[in-house]
Amino acid sequence: MWKYFSSAFVSMVAYVIAIISGFSLYNIIYEVPFDLNRPASGIIIGSVVVIITYVMLGVFIGFIFKKEQVKYSFLIGLLVVIGERVSLYFIGWNFVKTRVDGWSYESILSPVQFVWAEALPYFTPFYIVMAGICSLLVCMISTWGIGRFSTFSDKTI
């Protein structure tokens, strides 16, 4: 059971690192705040979040699981993808519900629009669906790579 909790912890730490790296990378490239160019900032920050978070998670899973690494990578990656999307949605829903910044709850997409406009420029319906699929693929490929090419894959941490 500790493997699942440690995988969740690794994904949380990787997510924080990815968010900080994505915003920093955008500021280095464009030297303007992220909300002045939403399409570019969404692409850069979202790509960094998908790549860094799920590569680190896949590598970690590849090291701690001996057998059926890709299966566990898919299952844990799916839980992390769903957990990320649901938690960000509920954070936005909570802010919209309390009417922070004059937002009102008009449709099911209101929390998504709030999170996109106020905090994370990559959190769009397209990201919620397509990046979830890409995240799972990145996680499974990095796990497969560690299991296939690492000399340490037969040992557990």
How does this model look, in words?
The chain has 157 residues and is mainly alpha-helical. The chain has one domain. The chain has helices at residues 2-30, 38-64, 69-97, 110-118, 125-149. Helix 3 packs across helix 4. The radius of gyration is 17 Å and the shape is globular. The two termini are 14 Å apart.
Q: Key terms for this structure?
A:
single chain; 157 residues; mainly alpha; 76% helix
By oligomeric state, this entry counts as: single chain
Number of helices: 5
Q: Categorize the overall geometry.
A: globular
Radius of gyration: 17 Å
Distance between the termini: 14 Å
Number of domains: 1
Find the count of extended strands (DSSP E, 2+ residues).
Answer: 0
Strand content: under 5%
In short:
The protein is an all-alpha fold and 157 residues long. Helix content is 76%, strand content 0%.
Blueprint (SSEs and pairs):
Blueprint: H1 2-30, H2 38-64, H3 69-97, H4 110-118, H5 125-149
Helix pairs in contact: 1-2, 2-3, 2-5, 3-4, 3-5
